[in-house]
Amino acid sequence: MLGGVRVGEFERPNVLAAVYFVMEKNVRLKLRSWKGTLLEILLPVLFMTMLVPAYYAAGSDNYKDLEYLENHFDVDAHFKPWMCRLDGQAEPMGYATCTDTPPEWHCLGNLCLNSSVPDNNDNGALEELLSPWYDIRNSTTIPSFDVVALWRNFAQTVDLPGTDDEGVNVANALRTGGNISIMGEPALVERFDDWFLTNTHTYKYTKRSFKSEKAATDYASSKEGSSKIWAVIVFNNLTEYTIRMNYTAVPDTATSTAEDIGYDKSYRQYIGGGFLTLQSLINANITGAEVPSAIVPMPVQGYHSNGFLKNAGSFLPLVLTLAFLFPLSQIVSSIVREKEARIREAMLIMGLSSTAFKLSWVMTTIVQMSITGLLLALVVSWTFLDNTEFGITFMLFWSYCMSLAAAGIMMSVFFSKAS
Asked: Buried-most residue among 130, 142, 170, 180 (CB within 10 A)?
């Protein structure tokens, strides 16, 4: 106490008022070097704007709605005219009699391909004949066992086009062996073996017996068996079974296909590979009724595809990283510069609370980065993502900018000199 005055006591300013005054100081410092501040705000926007010409140069492909219900394709109706029954044979029914004796490799039992089927000397006609296996686009009937078995047998004797224009290796699905083995409980094996023999003509020429499931799968995995085994069917009980196919006869399920827009065209391998045929036969026996025998892809809403956007995911993170290097470095530098000049300590001595000082820089950085996020969202919404809600685009960039602001404030703790 000195002269009635309490020495060393003073009233601290309100926290919000202190934050306001320190923010005003920060803004004045930013405006003093306005060119650098403008570059901090606009540099990420300039980087993004430079990508706009590439987006328009890539062009867009527009696709209409796909319903797949028109132009239903009947696989059996297409291939049966090319098939015939050996002269003098009563089975199988429903086929014309062969006018001449086909080559042995054209036949499975009494069912053969007629002499009008093109061979390797006429690749154009052969490809046109087999085109349905490669170009199924609409609702499609599941082919009968005899049709699949005979054409698979034929496919192993000719040179098929390897991969179609859309990258689906249907030829491999057709070429993968011709032997089928049914495994499981003896009573179930006998039941389904009899069912296949009764309802198909060619099964008896494709079946192969093994001592155990392991023996069958080991043989199918061997170099010799990989080209001879079509499928191993394993029955755990009457209603639970597994169809184990040669891996080249069905689409690859080890990787995700969600990257592409539209329908996954590899589903056609389930038809050419015979999986759906085997499944429908087994289900018909289990249910005791004829099951639906068609496949229809899920409809796809119309869309447009841009080559730039399809590949942007591989380089856009790098672009954003480079674009924000300068703004991030300036956030760190501004805070550290005050620490280096002891301005922070001076303000704390004069009564500024540590909370107010920290909040002032948090708010200053949020305002600056929010402006950058808003400008980025406007550029992207008017160009790349014109069909996306602006609010979603803004929140995406604003969140990214906020994370960088937080990272910059955190990094300033580890430096004592701005240089």
From this structure: 170
What would the two tokens of residue 271 be? 């038809």
Beta strands in 154-235 (DSSP E): 179-184, 229-235
pLDDT at 148 over 60: yes
Q: What is the distance between the alpha carbons of residues 125 and 141, in angstroms, rounded to a whole number?
A: 23
DSSP 167: S
Distance CA 231, CA 228 (A): 9
Tokens 């087999």 correspond to what residue? 130
12 contacts 353 by C-beta, under 8 angstroms? yes
Q: Does residue 48 contact residue 380 with C-beta atoms inside 8 Å? A: yes
Closest CA to 204 of 238, 178, 175: 178
Question: What pLDDT shows up at residue 371?
Answer: 92
Q: Which residues pair with 234 in a beta bridge?
A: 183, 242
Report whether pLDDT(376) > 70: yes
**In this structure, what DSSP letter does residue 261 have?**
S
DSSP string, 197-244: HHH-SSGGGTB---SSHHHHHHHHHSTTGGGTEEEEEEESSSS-EEEE
Average pLDDT, the chain: 79
The Cα–Cα gap between 37 and 35 comes to 5
pTM exceeding 0.90: no
Distance of CA 259 to CAs 51, 66, 148, 264, Å? 22, 19, 31, 10
Structure tokens at 341: 């000049």
Q: pLDDT tens across 39-98, in order?
A: 888 999 999 999 888 888 888 777 777 666 566 778 888 888 888 888 888 888 888 888
> Which tokens sit at 251?
């689409």
Q: How confident is the model at residue 2 (pLDDT cuts 50, 70, 90)?
A: very low
